[in-house]
Amino acid sequence: MQKGAELYKGKAKTVFATADARYLVMHYRDDVSAFDGAKLAKLEGKGETNNRINAWVMEKLAAAGVPTHFVRLLNERESLVRAMKMVPVECVVRNVCAGSMAKRYGIAEGTRLSEPIFEFFYKSDALHDPLCNDDHIRVLGWASSEEIAAMKAITHSVNGILKPMFAAAGIDLVDYKLEFGHPVDDPHGALTLGDEFTPDGCRLWDAKTGEKLDKDRFRRDLGEVIQHYREVGRRIGAPGV
Questions:
Q1: Looking at residue 87, what is its pLDDT?
Q2: C-alpha dihedral over 213, 218, 224, 228, to 10 degrees?
Q3: Do the beta carbons of residue 89 and residue 137 sit within 8 Å?
Q4: What b/e readout covers 2-34, taking b as 16+ CB neighbours within 10 angstroms?
């Protein structure tokens, strides 16, 4: 399906219209950013790598019964997705304490949690994506009680699917974020997983050494970012990575 006009340019992806309003083309660029855009760079091969990793993950989730916006790969850097009206919150699950959670509560990074912790964050670059709770989301009209419950349930289901898959590849799924919405052609239908699942939006550590395999390599100037992204893709079996 051919792409049309540019609709939206995010930090690392550009979204294009198609001749069918139900579908969009998601183009993965080589851009990488951190700290709400304060740190920027281009990393050759990132767009292609993330496109293929995301396709693999989305296909695995769909096969397990998770509704997603992903339709199919179009080429090395582009995927066809369903057009969505997104809920303006991020859903985060933490299996291991790291990143902002470690800083917020003064807990040592790498502390194993007795069970997964779920968090909501309001999507706003200007406000630095603040932590929020069910009441904020419901009272401020960002989502209904039913949608809140569904986002939690699906996110925990995704954890149950992906955590053992990554473990089988020798990778700890430390934490990750998901975003949800409703397809534009079915606005009252099932809540659907959107956006992406790539090393940009999750923490992945080597299960034996603890080596970081995700965007923390860029945030913390550890180097060899794309090499480690590709290592993730190869370990999980994503074709073409």
A1: 98
A2: 20
A3: yes
A4: ebeeeeeeeebbbbbbbeeeebbbbbbbbbbbb
Indicate the helix (H) or strand (E) that contains 14: strand 13-18
142-159 confidence digits (pLDDT tens): 999 999 999 999 999 999
Show Cβ contacts of residue 7 under 8 Å, excluding neighbours closer than 6 positions: 15, 16, 17, 24
The string of pLDDT tens digits covering residues 177-188 is 999 999 999 999
If you compute the radius of gyration of the chain from its CA atoms, what whole number of angstroms results? Answer: 17
Q: Which long-range contacts (CB under 8 A, 24 or more apart) does 130-136 make?
A: 131/104, 132/89
Does the pTM surpass 0.85? The reply is yes
HEC string for 157-219: HHHHHHHHHHHHCCEEEEEEEECEEEECCCCCCCCEECCCCCCCCEEEEECCCCCECCCHHHH
Q: Is the pLDDT of residue 107 over 90?
A: yes
Indicate the DSSP class of residue 127: T
What CA–CA distance (Å, rounded) separates 112 from 80? 37
* Residue the block writes with tokens 């790539």: 198
pLDDT at 74 over 90: yes
